[in-house]
Amino acid sequence: MSEERKDETRARDRPASEKTAGWIASGVVRLGLAIVGVVLLLFAAGRIAGIDLLELTVEVLTSSIGRWIVLALVALVLIVVAVRGFSGR
Question: Are 54 and 46 a contacting pair, CB within 8 Å?
Fold first, then answer.
């Protein structure tokens, strides 16, 4: 049996709690990397344009409308997670 198939068999034989924990950990790492990437992109683009895009973004997100935008994005992430959970079954 090839290594790839052995890995797939091991992944299927793991308990559901391990699969869930691995999936959550993977998601948190990816989300963290995405946030760091966006911050670096805003910083670099702001430097190129000569304006502080990072500070402007923080100001927008801390305003009353910005809080609702953040809440909507969190809700969108939860919806995507739920849909992926149902499609995996």
Answer: yes
CA distance 89 to 78: 17
Domain count, the chain: 1
Place of tokens 């890995």: 7
Domain that holds residue 38: 3-87
pLDDT by residue (tens digit) across 26-77? 778 888 888 899 889 989 998 999 998 888 888 988 899 989 988 998 888 8
**3-class state of residue 52 by DSSP:** coil
User: Torsions phi, psi of 44, nearest 5?
Assistant: -65, -45
The interaxial angle of helices 64-87 and 53-62, nearest 10 deg, is 90
Which among 33, 31, 34, 38 has a CA at the least distance from the CA of 78?
A: 31
